[in-house]
Amino acid sequence: MKRRPSALLLAILVAAGLPAAASAQQPAPADRAVLAESGIVFPERLGNFVRAQVSSLEAGRIAAHYILPAGGPGSTTVDLFVVRVGEPLAEEFAMTERMIRTIYTDLVVIRDLPAPAAAPGAVGRLWQGNLDGAPVLTGLILSHRNGWRIKLRATGPAGQGADSWADVDGLIRAFDWALPHL
Length: 182
What we know:
Elements: H1 6-16, E1 28-29, H2 32-38, E2 45-46, E3 49-58, E4 61-67, E5 77-84, H3 89-103, E6 105-112, E7 123-131, E8 134-145, E9 148-157, H4 166-174
Antiparallel strand pairs: 1-3, 2-3, 3-4, 4-5, 5-9, 6-7, 7-8, 8-9
């Protein structure tokens, strides 16, 4: 098993949008400027998930962290990020995939995820790999809309293979990808 410095792993997890339970840095309250400018609304519930927190890890970027109510440590989590578009969609997706490959070992693509109906240009992928020796599923959906990037990152135990992704699929369907306010 590879050993990684904990500060480096924490930086990668934060950059990738994964929850970092032992974070020494507490997220700042949600960036009100991004909330106001983007008009983004993170509902309290999305599918079977409940919103645990909305915060900004850096200026100009807002994130919502969702958990399964009955889930404990190691259960599936979902993070939604909204920030101004910085790179073309394909370039950003490739960059995020490279970052994901640095976090997980034995990573294999299970399937490309279909674009949500309200975000036909979105790209997504589902992988299975290992994190600290435990099998996990991790997925990404990336969409650009009116100059804003919407990134969904989800990670959970691989338990039942791709079938355990059903709760995340429900959240993806419940999220308002159309973002009519943008």
